[in-house]
Amino acid sequence: AHEAFERLSVEEKAFFLVESAFETMVKGLREAGDAVKNAMDEALSDLEKRKREAGHHDTNGHDASDEGGDAAGSDQDA
Q: Does the global pTM surpass 0.70?
């Protein structure tokens, strides 16, 4: 492989090195993108879990229909 590289012209060597660098950069960007996607998916999943837990806790202490019923009762009184 080393001998084959040595037989290349300067332009071919430069192209090979630029192409290799580009492929490495693309691979790194792809891996970084995957890491960001995974982190965002995990954060979204955690957020949805927290919302479900918060909603569950709210209904334990306060019935959402009570709030709507109060508003409807106020309208009927007016």
A: no
